[in-house]
Amino acid sequence: MGTTVMYGSVSVDGFIADENDQPGPLFDWLLSGDVPLDESGVLKVSQTSFDHVRPYWDQIGVTIVGRHVFDLTDGWDGKPPGGVDHVVVVTHRPKPEGWDPEGSFHFADGVEAAMAKARGLAGDRIIEVAAGDVGGQVLAAGLVDEVRMDVAPVVFGSGKRYFGSVHAQHLLEDPEVVIQGDRVLHLRYRVRR
After folding, report:
1. What tens digit of pLDDT does each residue of 112-129 get?
2. Global pTM value
3. Domain map of the chain by residue range?
4. Could you tell me where the beta strands, DSSP code E, fall in the chain?
5. Membrane-spanning regions, if any (predicted)?
6. How far apart (Å, rounded) are the C-alpha atoms in residues 169 and 20?
7. CATH number of 4-190
8. Fewest CB atoms within 10 A around its CB: which of 27, 112, 135, 157?
């Protein structure tokens, strides 16, 4: 079974978006370099960020997101982001009409069902859980192995929290990775068991 990683870009004060769901400058680092991060050619990062992020992205088999993110992105027009094979959407609402049940998007009622589906799809590849409410629920359930953050040099003051509505203490190990890119600090922590 692969590793489960909670991941997202985050402000220095712990927010993944402002109160209006806008990421503001959190993703500026994805446009600040000259090395293409994917085949689109739109995302260009520093060589340092590429050397850190691209190998990680290549290991992801499944990404788990909440219905809110799915709706905000219009389901990425039916194509999983970043070359990921599958997306599992945590939702208590019916899946949108017209979504292929055999396609790359899967819908689950709750984080436990989402994790079970993701494990079946990912094999030994990484299960990525988007930061925010769903990521916080997966962390609170004790199902996250690692936390990865791309910390942008901005303070929001308020907004959508990286760990969602987690209200209990969760200890992380000392950072295994601390890499400075252009307009970003890449951090990786193991969750203490």
Report:
1. 999 999 999 999 999 999
2. 0.94
3. 4-190
4. 4-11, 15-17, 35-36, 44-45, 60-66, 86-90, 105-108, 126-130, 146-152, 160-161, 177-181, 184-190
5. none
6. 27
7. 3.40.430.10
8. 157
